[in-house]
Amino acid sequence: MSTAMAFPDFFQFHLPVRIVFGKGLSKDFSAELSSLGVSRAFLVTEKFLHTLKIPDRIRQALESAGVGIAGVFDEVVPNSEVGLCERGAEAARKAGADCIVAIGGGSSIDTAKAINLLLSEGGKLLDYQGAQTLTRPLKPLVAVPTTSGTGSEATMVAVINDPDSQSKISLVDRYLTPALAVLDPELTLTLPRRITAATGMDALTHAVEAYVDIESSPFSDALAAQAMRLVARYLSKAVIDGGDVEVRSALQIASTMAGVAFNHSMVGVIHGMAHALGGMCHVVHGEANAMMLPLGMEYNLEVRERKFAEIARFLGLDIRGKSDRDAGLEGIAFVRQLNQELHDLAGLPTRLSDVGVSRDRLPEVAALAMTDGSMFYNPRDVAEEDVLAMLERAH
Ligand code: NAD
Predict the structure, then answer these.
(1) Among 163, 205, 300, 385, which lies 20 to 30 A Cα-Cα from 312?
(2) Is the CB of 191 under 6 A from ligand 1?
(3) How many Å lie between the centroid of ligand 1 and the Cα of residue 74?
(4) For residue 146, what is the DSSP state?
(5) What's the CA gap between 148 and 84, in Å, rounded?
């Protein structure tokens, strides 16, 4: 492998979110809360998490820190939708909230971001589609993730389903970034095997795409590299023994690191396809990413051979004496093998046909994927026929 480094002409790194980590931290994060100066929290979560008593735990932590509960919106569903966010914002406004607390996976955190936006700015969510549409800060948002995958607790991105256009819309603005991310791996101990597998592969996809994208920088690279190491080393272990808090810690840290990485360099063709599969065919986000990841890596290999060789090293492979291309191919083979292992251990689907995607919809999925903002950041110019070919191979 060549040792020459090529740094970008310009990059910047800004991290507005304060990230705190601790086993059991979600029971008491009063010190971190006090710096926000808030007194009326509006909780955004999903009903299922009540059965695990997770929102109660956060509610108690808030109350013992002197923050009252203005209201609770627990209607979030996976891949939550535009109308639901608008209803949540109305409830938050009526409740007189001065901060939003998101409790849950990416769906809850993204819904909370959309609610926070509408709470301050009003109007319809679709008016804010796209990038950098806001001109002023919103109310402080506290994110308490209960999955380890999206990294949304540390990103300026919200992805919301728009049933009218059967697509996932992205809202991207620095003011959407949470003020505080509370990482407590204990909250992820209850994740079932298949969700552990899918969310872990989501984090790996963020890290890989962030590492090869056109806006990658030495700072995002460092975080992406460590996220890849952690996921490669611990994901199968977390699936096998979900009760091991050290392993869960590794994945939660990896997920947030990958989130910070892609928040700076963005994602690419794999996410473009995953968003279209989610919007049109309701494929679970992490599962779509897992299925498309090796194909997207192969697609980009020819324009980033050295970086894919480095990825192979981060994944734990011994690539000494190999050409960059051969090392990159080994990294891709590792990802395929990991997908297979997660299929055997947790039932992670390996084919689009396994999750109800019909073959005749693939041309529409490819066309929708081409309109996704992620495509702009992919290191190789993306052609629609190539996207269709990847989708067909994954079917
Ligand atoms: P999710 O939030 O939809 O949750 C998936 C499932 O996990 C749900 O059924 C939920 O009930 C369950 N769950 C959550 N926490 C649990 C726990 N502790 N124990 C047991 N079950 C639990 O899944 P996700 O993968 O975290 O989020 C996916 C969403 O995030 C998608 O809409 C995706 O597009 C979006 N996303 C956003 C970003 C971003 O930067 N904003 C990045 C990637 C993905």
Answers:
(1) 385
(2) yes
(3) 14
(4) S
(5) 24
Whether 1 shows a pLDDT value over 80: the answer reads no
The helix or strand, by DSSP H or E, that contains position 189, with its residue range, turns out to be none
pLDDT in tens, 23-71: 999 999 988 998 899 999 999 999 999 999 999 999 999 999 999 999 9
| Cα(181)–Cα(169) distance, integer angstroms | 23
Q: How far is the CA of 80 from the centre of ligand 1 (A)?
A: 10
In this model, does residue 185 exceed pLDDT 80?
yes
Structure tokens at 265: 């360099």
The CA distance from 188 to 231, in Å, is 15
Supply the pTM of this predicted model: 0.97
Tokens linked to 329: 């191919």
Backbone angles phi, psi at 101, to 5 degrees: -120, 115
Residue nearest to atom 34 of ligand 1 (CA): 159
Q: What pLDDT is attached to residue 22?
A: 97
The answer, yes or no, to whether any atom of ligand 1 lies below 6 A from the CB of 13, is: no
Q: In what order do the strands lie in the sheet with 167-172?
A: 130-131, 167-172, 157-162
Q: Which residues contact 303 (CB under 8 A, 6 or more apart)?
A: 379, 380
> Ligand 1 centroid vs 78 CA: distance in angstroms?
6
Q: How far is the CA of 14 from the centre of ligand 1 (A)?
A: 25
Taking all residues of the chain, what is their mean pLDDT, rounded to a whole number? 96
**pLDDT over threshold 70, residue 180:** yes
Q: How far is CA 104 from the centre of its chain?
A: 12
Distance of CA 96 to the CA centre of its chain: 29
- The whole-angstrom separation of Cα 34 and Cα 36 is 5
- Name the CA dihedral angle for 258, 262, 268, 271, rounded to a multiple of 10 degrees: 60
Domains annotated on the chain, with CATH: 18-187 (3.40.50.1970), 191-394 (1.20.1090.10)
Burial of 123 (0-12, 13-18, 19+ CB in 10 A): exposed
| Cβ-proximal residues to 381 (8 Å cutoff; 6+ apart), any chain | none
Closest by Cα among 266, 17, 284, 15 to 149:
284
Q: How far apart are CA 250 and CA 233, in angstroms?
A: 9
Tokens of 38: 């808030």
Residue nearest to atom 4 of ligand 1 (CA): 105
pLDDT digits (tens, 9 = 90+) for 267-308: 999 999 999 999 999 999 999 999 999 999 999 999 999 999
